[in-house]
Amino acid sequence: MRRLLITGETSLAGRIHVQGSKNVFLHLAAASLLASRPVRLRNAPAITDTRVCVEIARALGAHAEVADAAMTTHAADLRTTEIPGGLGTLIRPTACFGAAVLARTGAVTFPFPGGDAFAERLIDRHLAAMQAVGAEIRVSDGFVHARARRLAGFTFDASTDGHGPSLGATISALLLGAMASGASRISGASVEPEVEHTVGLLRCLGVPVSWEGTSTLEVEGRPPANGATYTVPPDRMVAGTYAIAAAMTEGRIDLAGVALSDFPTGFLKVAATAGLDLAQVPHGIRATRSEPAPVEFETGPHPEYPTDLQPQLCALLTQAPGTSKVAERVYSRRATHIPGLASMGADIRAVGDHLTIVGPRTLSGATVRGTDIRAAAALVLAALAASGRTELAGVEHLYRGYENLPGTLRSLGAAVMEHSQEEL
Ligand SMILES: CC(=O)N[C@H]1[C@@H](OP(=O)(O)OP(=O)(O)OC[C@H]2O[C@@H](n3ccc(=O)[nH]c3=O)[C@H](O)[C@@H]2O)O[C@H](CO)[C@@H](O)[C@@H]1O
Ligand SMILES: C=C(OP(=O)(O)O)C(=O)O
């Protein structure tokens, strides 16, 4: 079991290149299975989730490889319609991979997805999209079996009961619509960059999609005639995490390859109040600390404040004088970062979906565990600002989405070492 040992209180300074986006990449990798010609995704992040995508494509009979920071998938034919349980349970967009296989072959078997387990992560809207295109669904022993005699154009609402649009279900519906006969219309759709880039890739593949960035999409079913080369955009969650690291440590980090427009407006507004100054510089963005103040905000669908940057901002809010309040509206009870932050000295509590942080608090190193990717990221941020040494377990969650995190932090001056448990 690997752990990170972080000795805090160093101001981080320097310039880093921001990796490709995990969440965009994962959805593009699913969409790549629609094409019978090669699809090359450039700027693929070097993370464990990327390796899982390669293995899923290979298990289905496609050729897949990563070389020169690009994943190439050639799904000339799919040999089987089953996504193995041992792979599908490792990542979140398994249902989108399932939709791609169903769209391509008329049948699919896939396990309930994995990804982070900070909340119940439902897939009922994905299954509803599969039914809308004409599939019959059966669930048994943790697997979904879907089969359709023919895939016909459909209308579908991708919004959920009480949590706004589902990003994943929007993309599942889009992939099904791309291969159905006739036109499909998706309403209540997510407008996240993941959707924008999936639409971008489908268009490159020759699938007509009509979308103006609003909550309605129209797709004309047309099996992709082309292959494509597509570039994954920078990871806005990773960029946001390192930007917060600059503010946490009163340092200065230049994030190359990202623009202010890559961040949701909800994040820019809240972070500015919380003590993070972001300025556009010629090669990207410069992140420094401004006067921190407490904030009250809600997470919400893009372009509102993203749930994936909520735990990290909580770490920063431990340094803001006064009481901050967060309402987590996307994932009820996404609060797995609280025990670790509290054991480092933070005054942070959760009641239902509401988190309260009282600052400023002096943080001290502790032995903590990250139980999912952004909770672990929040603990890394706290450790960088804390006095003394923090021992962080659960780093495998970080490696699902952060490329070479220890090396990147060291390049900024942080004292970070990785150890396996036997070495401690
Ligand atoms: C809208 C939103 O912020 N989506 C986030 C969500 O995407 P992801 O695609 O994982 O999740 P969805 O957008 O589908 O889920 C949003 C909400 O809808 C609910 N839901 C989802 C699917 C479904 O079939 N039924 C259902 O009820 C979920 O439980 C959740 O409360 O998690 C990702 C990882 O943290 C983030 O990168 C995305 O920004
Ligand atoms: C929760 C996340 O990832 P996943 O959906 O892959 O679990 C995340 O990116 O913050």
Automatic annotation (TrEMBL):
Indicate the enzyme's highest-level EC class.
transferase
Task: Name the Gene Ontology molecular function terms of this record.
Answer: UDP-N-acetylglucosamine 1-carboxyvinyltransferase activity
Its Enzyme Commission number(s) read: 2.5.1.7
Major localization listed first in the record, in broad terms: cytoplasm
List the pathway annotation: Cell wall biogenesis; peptidoglycan biosynthesis
**This protein's UniProt keywords:** Cell cycle, Cell division, Cell shape, Cell wall biogenesis/degradation, Cytoplasm, Peptidoglycan synthesis, Transferase
Task: Give the catalysed reaction(s), semicolon-separated.
Answer: phosphoenolpyruvate + UDP-N-acetyl-alpha-D-glucosamine = UDP-N-acetyl-3-O-(1-carboxyvinyl)-alpha-D-glucosamine + phosphate
Q: Which residues form the Enolpyruvate transferase domain?
A: 7-408
What family does this belong to?
Answer: Belongs to the EPSP synthase family. MurA subfamily.
The record's section on InterPro entries has: Enolpyruvate_Tfrase_dom (IPR001986), Enolpyruvate_Tfrase_sf (IPR036968), MurA_subfamily (IPR050068), RNA3'P_cycl/enolpyr_Trfase_a/b (IPR013792)
What is the protein named? Answer: UDP-N-acetylglucosamine 1-carboxyvinyltransferase
Role description: Cell wall formation. Adds enolpyruvyl to UDP-N-acetylglucosamine.
Protein's cellular compartments: Cytoplasm
Q: Which SUPFAM superfamilies match?
A: EPT/RTPC-like
Database matches in Gene3D superfamilies:
Enolpyruvate transferase domain (3.65.10.10)
